[in-house]
Each structure stands twice: as structure tokens, then as C-alpha cells.
Amino acid sequence: QVQPVESGGGLVQPGGSLRLSCAASTIVFSRVTMGWYRQAPGKQRELVARIPSGGTTEYADSVKGRFTISRDNAKSTVYLQMNSLKPEDTAVYYCNTELRSLPWGQGTQVTVSS
User: Fold this and answer.
1) Per-residue pLDDT tens digits for 36-87
2) For 26, 65, 78, 86, which has the most beta carbons within 10 A of its beta carbon?
3) Quick one: three-class SS letters along the chain?
4) 80-97 mean pLDDT
5) Hey, how many other C-beta atoms are within 10 angstroms of the C-beta on 31?
6) Which residues contact 82 (CB under 8 A, 6 or more apart)?
7) What strands, in cross-sheet order, belong to the sheet with 18-23?
């Protein structure tokens, strides 16, 4: 399996927005549930959003109403639109399948700070 490639992170002020992208060129992309994960310094990696191949998206309580996950199966890409960012959203963001079956990519750093 090929590791995903995440992009779109950066430094943003509180209340700002970012859109993350993740290209995951697994041949079964269109059939698997994908997720966005994040890991803050000193904390465990956590799932923040998941999107089935068809069906309802789900979000961690901490990001509900602010983050939106979407996917483009034709491009084997999953996105995370992040609005109303808070300092506690600062982390390295990764994508993977729901079962974490792909090798972890490099991730993309998101820093929310004034």
C-alpha cells in the first residue's frame, strides 16, 4: 500500500479557516471509509472525522459544526474544511482508512495562534 500524501496545513489565526487535502492512491479508495486524524504534542492520535463511501459523515465532538469532511472518489482524495479554528486544533493532521490500514503519511502541520 502507498502512504497517503497530506497537504494544506499552515499557520492561521484563531477564527480562521484551512482546507486540507489527502491523496490516497489505494485501488479500493472508493469503497473504504476514510478518516482524518490529528496528533497534538504529547497526545495520542485521534480520529476527528470519518466519511464512508456512501452514507453519513461523523465528527468528534470537539470539531462538530466547525469541520467538514468530503471526498472525491475519482481523484482518490479526501478533504477537511476547517472553520472557526481554535488554538486547541493545533496538531499534525493525517488521513487514513477507518481501520488505519494504510502506512501513515508525513501529515500536515496545522498551527492556530495569534
Assistant:
1) 999 999 999 999 999 998 879 999 999 999 999 999 999 999 999 999 999 9
2) 78
3) CCCCEEECCEEECCCCCEEEEEECCCCCHHHCCEEEEEECCCCCCEEEEEECCCCCCEECCCCCCCEEEEEEHHHCEEEEEECCCCHHHCEEEEEEECCCCCCCCCCEEEEECC
4) 97
5) 11
6) 17, 18, 19, 20, 63, 66, 67, 89, 110
7) 5-7, 18-23, 77-82, 67-72
The C-alpha cell of 30 is what? 472508493
Residue 81, all three cell numbers: 474544511
As a whole number of angstroms, the distance between CA 99 and CA 87 comes to 28
